[in-house]
Please model this.
Amino acid sequence: MHFIVFEGLDGAGKSTLIEGLKRELTTLGESVVLTREPGGTELGEKIRELLLTKDGESPVARAELLLYEAARAQHCDKVIEPALAKKHWVICDRFSASSIAFQAGGRGLDRKTIDQLNSFATQDLAPALWVLLDLTTAEAMRRMQGRDLDRFESENKDFHERVRQRYLDLAKENQQSWLVLDASRKPSELMLELMAKLKERKLWPA
Ligand SMILES: Nc1ncnc2c1ncn2[C@@H]1O[C@H](COP(=O)(O)OP(=O)(O)OP(=O)(O)O)[C@@H](O)[C@H]1O
Ligand SMILES: [Mg+2]
Model:
């Protein structure tokens, strides 16, 4: 069992690849917990609502960050740690790197503060692998066409460009714990590459 996180722009194809990975692992008899941020717990899902809605008062950037971190602390203690203790796989749609990409890259908050808050919220829990689905903002937006966009998805192109760049910087900073996939490829190709890389990194069931 391993803890694996998927990151990337909204519309990059995280949910699609996560479902594929879950299917492959389940077929091999592994037990898999799928979860997401913000959310994953009852409290976290309520915070998710507050964060993503376009109705009412928007949080200022610092409040936004703190709401994410509150949901994350709850998620780590109530879902991720217990599942790992039971030797389940945990596959998570977004985690602490999203706060660096969106709140530092997108919103311009101080990186060091975010690192400290991430460390506090997660108690330094980190996945065995971060998978970045890298896609141009134009293609990500195209894939979201027709959807009712949430508060982040409604941000402008520059915001999403900064988020994308921050993800790429993060992955470059820490190549042994990040895998960058070119998300413009077909889902079936992405799945094959993901499985090959997990095997290479000894993160696949023996
Ligand atoms: N590799 C791919 N190539 C083309 N289209 C894709 C690919 N992966 C997913 N899609 C399509 O793009 C859209 C967004 O995919 P998906 O919901 O998996 O992205 P996401 O990263 O989970 O987005 P969100 O962050 O909004 O949840 C969907 O309509 C999906 O069918
Ligand atoms: Mg999704």
